[in-house]
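Please describe our next protein:
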Amino acid sequence: MRRFSKEENSWIFYDWGSSAYSIIISTAVFPIFYKSAATNAGVSPADSTAYLGYTIAIATFILAMLGPILGTIADYQGYKKRFFSFFFLLGIGFTGILAFIPAEQWVLLLVCYTLATIGFSGTNIFYDAFLVDVTSESRMNLVSARGYGLGYIGSTIPFIISIAIIVLSQNGILPISTVIASKIAFIITAVWWGIFTIPLLRHVQQHHYIKRERNPVMNSFKRLWNTLTEIRKHRALFLFLLAYFFYIDGVGTIITMSTAYGTDLGIGSTDLLIVLFVTQVVAAPFSILYGRLSEKFTGKKMLYVGIFIYMIVCIYAYFLETTLDFWILAMLVATSQGGIQALSRSYFAKLIPKEKANEFFGFYNIFGKFASIMGPLLVAMTAQLTGNSSLGVFSLVILFIIGFVILTKVPEPKA
């Protein structure tokens, strides 16, 4: 196996930088900072949680609707990096601005968080689409998996620094308030994300494209409409998207609701943060391992493995009783969460017409975004009807079974 090229490494290291946003802004520091700000402003805990949920839903909906449209336009020669750069600057800019908003201005915090999230998620559409430009089809599994693997490692470094600053400020060791410490974490995220995006901006180019023509926006809408009306020509691709919709819904739900489930089991917030950190560390080598094994057994077979492990996770969750059980569950998730996402991305990249990568990754984004709705609803309804959150997680096995069955109908990509 030859070494990774400059273009491949430049693409991979974007994941190293941008993953800091996922863990610090989306998962750990910002939600706690916002909840504290809203509570101090007199907003009830239930209302503040609802407002955050509405904010995430709005950002998700905007990106899901804009993804295929912007992607179709970006397929023209030279447009992909322009769109990538615009959303990157939007994301990094408003991530940094979060640090300068007074804590009592909780509404403004949500507005800036919405714009930062649109920037982050929008950038990922074009970042994923660049996979077809930076490497050959035979190496896509390997490169995609390495991106996820290094992303997990890269995110832990600014996460550890940020949590250390916050904890030291809480204990009076650092002469700053927790509010200031949290704002420093936002700046660290923006800087980290920015520095490791530079190689991609410098070395990655759009090699697959459609020649520019007059009225690119109008013609993009026509091409998008043609794609939608000619779905039969892309049967394998849309079958895969349907399978992806179900199993990635289960994956995403387990990731986003894991801390709430852990809290229901009586696990403290400090322990949950430790579990989150260790999960990131363990997920890194397993993501890369999935890429290596896909070279030997094919990406589709490794997707089967990932789905099967998640079925075990759902079943095991039903029997959870102790903190040790939760640790075992978390480590099982860590073995496959990066691999299943990485190979899904590369499998999809092999199926699509390379010159229409942005348009099709726009659809990929839609299926990924809207898939984040059904899983949480299934868990919530099952848990509420039965009064047992373990049964809620167990119910997700249905999504993995449906995804598995549909995936068996998808043919292997042809070079």
Residues 213 and 219 are 8 Å apart (CA to CA). DSSP finds 16 helices and no strands in the chain. The mean pLDDT is 84. The domain at 6-207+218-407 is CATH 1.20.1250.20 (Growth Hormone; Chain: A;).
